[in-house]
Amino acid sequence: MKFWTAHIRAGRRPELVREGWSWGAFFFGALWLLMQRAWIAAVLDLALWVVIDVLTDDGTRLVLSVGLAIGQGLLGRDLVRWSLARRGYTLAHVIAARDDEAALGRLLQGRPDLAHSFVPVGELR
Predict the structure, then answer these.
(1) d(Cα 35, Cα 53) in Å, to the nearest integer?
(2) Which residues lie across from 15 on neighbouring strands?
(3) pLDDT tens track for 24-77
(4) Are 21 and 71 in contact (CB under 8 A)?
(5) pTM score
């Protein structure tokens, strides 16, 4: 069983963010944050990588780079939640489900008023 947080904003479709470790954030860092539309976090992440690269020697650079990657894996989804809050989304629910589709189904079942703001991807074509 996995957990998601549901974030809502008037006139927008609900955003689901999974809890826990993010392999995407661990391996791809700022690129992953950009794909999640966490712009400020991505810029800060890139700045940290540049600072580490410019101001440290090889041994320290390796340790700090691994530490930053682990931090991204641990906190990446929290940075996405922070970015959603900055864009006006509010935390509405915490949902337990086996996958993201089931989580969205449970959210819409519990909050049918949100169904009008959600357009499935297949209907956008």
Answers:
(1) 23
(2) 7
(3) 999 999 999 999 999 999 999 999 999 999 999 988 999 999 999 999 999 999
(4) no
(5) 0.85
